Amino acid sequence: MKVRKGSSSREYKTVWMKRTEIFLIDQRKLPEKFEVFKTKDYKETTKAIKDMVVRGAPAIGVTASYGITQAALDFQGKDLKKFFSHLEKAKKSIINTRPTAFDLFYAVDKMIISLQKAESVQKAKNIAVSASRDYAKRSEDNCRKIGVFGNKLIKNKDKILTHCNAGALGCVDYGTALAPLRIAHSKGKKIFVWVDETRPRLQGAKLTSWELLNEGIEHRIIADNAAGYFMQKGEVDLCIVGADRIAMNGDFANKIGTYEKAVLAKENGIPFYVAAPLTTFDRNCKSGKDIKIEERSEDEVLFIDKKRIAPKNAKARNPAFDVTPAKFVTAYITEKGIFKPSEIKRII
Description:
Helix content is 38%, strand content 18%. The protein is α/β, with parallel strands linked by helices. The protein folds into 2 domains: 2-144, translation initiation factor eif-2b, domain 1 (Four Helix Bundle (Hemerythrin (Met), subunit A)); 151-347, Rossmann fold (3-Layer(aba) Sandwich). The strands form 5 sheets. Strands 8-7-6-9-12-16-17 form a 7-stranded mixed β-sheet, sandwiched between helices. A 3-stranded antiparallel β-sheet has the order 3-4-5. A hairpin with a 2-residue loop joins strand 13 (303-304) and strand 14. The radius of gyration is 20 Å and the shape is globular.
């Protein structure tokens, strides 16, 4: 992604690995500060995922794959049985961080399966390094392809609404929901983006706006409860959002507030698209009823930037995601093309 600093700009990935260390753009600090967070072992990486230094399903998946590599490289000894026992411990630690994002589980399982072919600990370590690197490259390439396919849905002067942050910060690069916007902008299409603030963590106001500013894409931040107003006035041509887990019947989980945007879009006759790589589709999940929803600390609702906004004795609930039924989805945008919910089983 492009990061502007004064009069100059530089390209960054959201997450990358050098030797045994993982480097992450610290998303808790944006937009006030741009800082790179470094983890030295899988335990620090696990905490970084839990604390939302990194977020977004594809980015979490890539970070998890690198975390397994760290665990592999950390192991001392030549006993394969003990090596895999060590990896199992690391796996449990990593997958317990964020229960809703399927890319996390997919990436970890993919890594463990690839290492099981190794005949020695050293060979397993070599495989881990190359496998995680390849996984990150494929993830980035898949997002670029999502952008290419999604661009076909965007016309010149379209006004697009998105929710939360499904941009480069939520992936290795390009993004999912923002990838089509990036490609459309690069092709010279004049587009406009409505950016939901996305309470309670304000990923839209803080992160999506920051990305669009760096890309030079015109947009406005709106309160979460203003989307219906602009839809009703005919100022939204289409909606594109990301996803954290997609069931085989087309139901999907995404940041809390997505469901109501989908219902509003349906009511107002606005196409509603979900951009996600195939790694987000959970083959063992029959419907949205099977998706576990993460509930985070009530403090995220009661406070903004450590300042309490609610009465002292007030309590809150804070589900991080909601489930949108397939009937509200116009189509899915993936690296393999665009298809309807009814086509999922055939595609997957």
